[in-house]
Specification:
The protein has about 70 residues and is an all-alpha fold. It has a domain at about 1-45. The protein contains 3 helices and no strands. The protein has helices at about 1-20, 30-40, 45-50. It is elongated. It starts with a helix and ends in an 18-residue tail after the last helix. This is Guanine nucleotide-binding protein subunit gamma. G proteins are composed of 3 units; alpha, beta and gamma. Pfam families: G-gamma.
Length: about 70
């Protein structure tokens, strides 16, 4: 029973290695350039960089009403 279990485990390992070997690789320099280009293209839409308009910010503090 142990040899069957061991053989089954080895087959799963070989299948996983085959799957990982077939993944298309991208050079780090190309991935970094693509990421930089994406960030620059979408910087105008990034709320952390440009902020949110005051009227559409759902997280703003509610206005207090003072009755005199």
């Amino acid at each position: 029973m142990t040899s069957n279990s061991n053989l089954s485990s080895m087959r799963r390992t070989v299948e996983q290695l085959r799957l990982e070997a077939s993944v298309e690789r991208v050079k780090v320099s190309q991935a970094a350039a693509d990421l930089q280009q994406y960030c620059l293209q979408n910087a105008s839409k990034d709320a952390l960089l440009v902020g949110l308009p005051a009227g559409s910010n759902p997280f703003r503090e509610p206005r207090s009403c003072a009755v005199l």
